Amino acid sequence: MPQKAAPPQPPSRLRREVAAAKRRIRELWMIGKALAHTDHPVMAHIVPMRRCNLSCAYCNEYDDFSKPVSVETMYRRIDRLAELGTTIVTISGGEPLLHPELDLIIARIRKHGIIAGMITNGYLLTAERIHRLNDAGLDHLQISIDNVMPDDISKKSLKVLDKKLQLLSRHAVFHVNINSVVGGGIHNPQDAVMVGTRALALGFTSTIGIIHDSSGQLKPLRPEEREVYRRMKSFEKKNYSRFNHFQDAIADGKPNNWRCRAGSRYLYICEDGLVHYCSQQRGYPAKPLDGYTIDDIRREFVAEKSCAPHCTVSCVHQISYIDHWRAPQTAAVVPALEHIDVDVRELVQIE
């Protein structure tokens, strides 16, 4: 009778420290390259799998039937992003862990020297799966946890996911960020504090996100939600996400004055291989990645987006903030595409 394989052993402290040091060096290089010149994307979100194993009430960024994008197609897209000079590629979905060849996709990103991130709901994580992600070279992983107990809004609860978080704490070589949320119908805002406290206790970083309305636009927080938001902000380490006050204005119901570089410094590539401003503004420019060029990057860099003042998509803002001091946007205003009804509030955080 064949014996069962021994369970994977946690990585050594030395391996974790070496991985963190190498990651930090590449992150500093990424920032330096971004400051040096503007003719390349800093971050791209790419979708290899639109299907998800959950069905959260606030989210329309998934389905329950799509097939995974073939690994050969994903290779071509990643190679093209590398040709454009992209420095971070974050895999999102749907649920990326449903893709049967996810490890190969991550390894392809890392082969180009690009920082590899992933956003997942965490349900499918096991010790063995975490070690495969380590071996593939994943740099950052983010899980958004919406509540302490599952409810009709979201099943991404601390009660369900805590054992997965413990596995990550023991086995992950990559950086882990836990994002809690307020707004958007979340029943108990105080849950965010419990989620953040648990994340810090396990050695992760903790961030707070504000769920926007159905078109990705500003939705002011209630007084109780603002109190929770400000308490949670004190949990965050001094990382790239704290270089600006984008979400502070959102929490107070105020518009932001900023230069959105979507389509240039930030790209959203859907499962069909089309480049969009972001998940909230799919439909423009909606150009195939294979044909996306430096001319497109330069055009969108100076194109003003009319949806920007009331946008809540923090990942786009954080990338755009690198260039807040230069290149005023003088091109014709691009109309906001307000028919999109999806929810994305994630960015793989930089330590």
Could you outline the blueprint of secondary structure elements for this entry?
Elements: H1 13-36, E1 43-49, H2 71-83, E2 88-93, H3 102-111, E3 115-120, H4 127-136, E4 140-145, H5 158-171, E5 175-182, H6 191-201, E6 205-210, H7 223-233, H8 246-251, E7 266-269, E8 274-276, E9 285-288, H9 294-301, E10 303-305, H10 314-320, E11 331-334
Parallel strand pairs: 1-2, 1-7, 2-3, 3-4, 4-5, 5-6, 10-11
Antiparallel strand pairs: 7-8, 8-9
Helix pairs in contact: 2-3, 3-4
Task: Considering the chains and any ligands shown, give keywords for the structure.
single chain; 9-stranded mixed beta sheet; 32% helix; 351 residues; two-stranded parallel sheet; alpha/beta; disordered C terminus; 11 strands
What is this structure, in a nutshell?
The protein is 32% helix and 16% strand.
Explained architecture:
There is one protein chain. The protein has 351 residues and is of the alpha/beta class. The chain is 32% helix and 16% strand. The chain is built from 10 helices and 11 strands. The chain has helices at residues 13-36, 71-83, 102-111, 127-136, 158-171, 191-201, 223-233, 246-251, 294-301, 314-320, and strands spanning 43-49, 88-93, 115-120, 140-145, 175-182, 205-210, 266-269, 274-276, 285-288, 303-305, 331-334. A 9-stranded mixed beta sheet has the order 6-5-4-3-2-1-7-8-9, with helices on both faces. Strands 10-11 form a two-stranded parallel ribbon. A hairpin with a 4-residue loop joins strand 7 (266-269) and strand 8. Helix 2 runs parallel beside helix 3 (102-111) and helix 3 packs parallel to helix 4. It is globular, with a radius of gyration of 19 Å. The termini are far apart.
